[in-house]
Amino acid sequence: MDDSLVERTASLRELCGRYPYKPENYDNLIECLRLNKSNNDEIFVVREKKRGLFKWRQEDLAGYQEDIASISDKEKKDQVSLEFYSRLKEEYPIAENWVNYIEHLIALRPETVVPSIYDEALEDCEYDYQESYKVWNYLITIALALFEEGQLQFESVFQLYLRRLSRPQNNLDGVFSEVSQFVSKNKANDYEKYMVKANSMYQKTSKSMRYYEMFELPLAKDPTNVELWSQYLDQIYKYSKKDHTLKQLRTTFFRALTAGGILRNGQNQWIPVWLTFIYCLYDLGNSQLAREYLKQFLQTYPYSCLGYAEFIRNIQENPKETSEFLVIRQRIQECDLMNSSDYDSWKTLATTLLAFEYKCVEDLGIVDFMNHLFSDIDKFVNHALENNDIFHTVEKTAITIFEKLDEIELAEKILQGLVELFNAQCEVWLFFYEFKKRNGASAGEISAVFESSLERILEMDWPERILLEWLSFAQLNESSEANKKLVVRADEILKAITEYRMNMSTENYISNSIGRKRSLEVRKEELPSKKQRTESTEDFKRNRELFTIKVTNLPRTTTENHVKDFFKECGDTKEIILFKENDGISCRVEFHSEQEVLAALTKGFKKFQDNEISITRFFEATVWVTNYPPSLSQDQIKDMFSKVGNVISARFPSQKAKHDRRFCYIEFGDPQHAMIAKKMFNDKEIEDPLDNKRYTLKVEISDPSRKRERNESSHSNEAFIQNLDFKIVTSDILRDFFSGCGEIEQIRLPVNEKGVDKGYHNSGFGFINFKTDVGLENALKLNGASLSKRPIKISRSKSKADQNRQPLKSISAFDDSKSISLFNVNDTLTAQQLRSHITQNVGDVNKLELFPKSEAALVEFTNSPDAGKASMILNSQDLAGRTLTVGLKRDLLQKLHNPSTAKTTHNQPPVTDNSLLAPPTLMRRRKR
């Protein structure tokens, strides 16, 4: 070996000793040692050192096996080979690795093969759906041999077979056949007795097989599907028997890591599988085991900030474990994660490190950790300032820690650095202001902070907020005269801000105009089509909170015209809503543009008639509500949310598209009430007063950008099930059958009166609503599965629009003698809401169909007299802001054939002849 190789080898040995947590140092040393053919022993020593700190990857296995093959001494080769397979089944305890180890053990050291080895293998592999048979076959073969020799009783072998039958596997039928042959051969006289037990276990396992096949079948085709493996682990955690959950999770986890016969360790796309497994261990309450696998996660991904942060959080429950933390801290420093990781990942780790070090200082009083803490804060804050994190998470964490340690000067030093570098960020100034307040600064010192902020007020991202905070502070802490002067000054500053922004907008307009001229050179085919442009703009056609303000402390006599006149200099108002609030009057004003809003904000703290008003931007005051009981009226929905706070508007979607759109927007006068409404009603179950079914409300803070997503998802998670057994299949049976697919929100099994009389539970089909699209996808995989000895057909449910393409055909099915037409029906009403209203006011409805585009409805009653009664009760009745008009079925047909006659105003009923108002029963008498 030449001198240069000797020197490089020595240098790499030193690097491995100095920086033991860098895996590349070991790899480089192994490559050097390989060049020295006479030094095989050290190669395996280095490999073992690396294995102690890092999990084996595919390249490690390949290299290890190459090094074994290069050993010339057979006895030594066998020994190293056996050690390799022993460690491999410890690292990755899957069936194939266990079998390789057992085969080598039998070949090389048969005297050491004892039954406990097979028991250990079975513990690791019996839940391997695809390959557990490899271990079972060994165990069963040995058990049968011992039985033949008289060393094992029949019952012991039979119990072993029962255990095997109880485990889901891809050859369950074959195992059952083996059991049958074994019992037939050895207990022919008691065959039925034993096979009843075996059959019971077989049937029980067979029922659970479909839940495993939902994942096993697609994974057999695509073994590297990370998302599917993660879902599989999650489903095992949710639905397996608790005493078996851990075994099944562990087996499936290691199967995922060795999917397709290749070690997937170290590949970043497999991190979700690791995290799913670890989080399942958390939920099982096994924090010790979770920590063990977190260590393995770090050994697999030594440069993952997320892994280190998660591990530190795990040991944070017991800060006395400082030695383990110090080892992790050393690894983090050696890997230089601060400079080698993306900032967002690193800042999570940085704040976790600082929090742990602070707890050790504060709770345990460890002086050494004080040095670690101060050193890390200095490094981390400088790094954070360089990376311009808009949230300043690390800096704020450091400031909070210094405050808790009563190191106020050090905290203020960091704040001064923040203010100098980010003086155009409103939140930085507000954080400075709050810091001063917390730490007992005088009113003069706090005012000085606000004065300093004025240096960059024009370029600031939210200057109005700074001024409002300053004015609020001054009202409580300054004299009346000083406060008045500040109001005048704030008004001048706001005018300057508005002028500055207007100038900036003009400059941007000129710049954009030049850009548009240049963009005309773009090839025509690269531009979006007219349809695409329309679709993209429709999503944001109306965002009521985008250009909206709230005005408070208005006089009680205020009208919309008063408000419009007050803001006429700012621009045209789009919508004004006045409402009572805190024994006074407030209003919500919507403008057309950002410039109009900014101009309106400058009028804050001015006199409106005799009242000094306050003006603020109005955000996140609206909740989006869906999945309320179908028959719940619009007034009932408003009343329900009015219990939380002042509802200033409730908007329901038009049903003209015939989608049966069951959602609405509830707007509160205070954004805080919207948050309370979400907390109070989201996921709350409410019973439908009409059919007593329960529905789970979905309530979210409104986000107009998600409007399309919500509308399109209304039917996206519903499965349509066909070929159901009429007399056997109930909702409970369906729920049990599909429970493994995902959380079920609702099951509907339509059945008519004739079916009920015959004892039917359904009409051969049904609908299942899943909470997520994953649940629906899992259900679709069961298409063709057997339920009550029938192959069922499963497909996506079609939307209501698809089911209502030919309204005229459906009209012919309505009985003339029992039916009425309704006109001037508010197009936001759903069929269920209208049905509920009519049932409560008139009588039972047999069927009802809405024609929202014609603002009409067709209603068939169960009893003919109710049709006549409806004309007298419903005619001229107000419903959802409209005055209803009643007619005959033929009147509706006439309007549908001649749509122009269907156009009505909101205040006037459609023009019609007198006979239109007559009850259907009276019309029949006239014909006679």
From TrEMBL:
Gene3D superfamilies: 3.30.70.330, Tetratricopeptide repeat domain. InterPro entries: Nucleotide-bd_a/b_plait_sf, Prp24_RRM1, RBD_domain_sf, RRM_dom, RRM_occluded, TPR-like_helical_dom_sf. Residues 900-928 are annotated as: Disordered. SUPFAM superfamilies: RNA-binding domain, RBD, TPR-like. Keywords: Repeat, RNA-binding. Residues 900-915 have a biased composition (Polar residues). SMART domains: RRM. The keyword Magnesium does not apply. Residues 621-704, 717-799, 818-891 form the RRM domain. The keyword Lyase does not apply. GO terms for molecular function: RNA binding. This is RRM domain-containing protein.
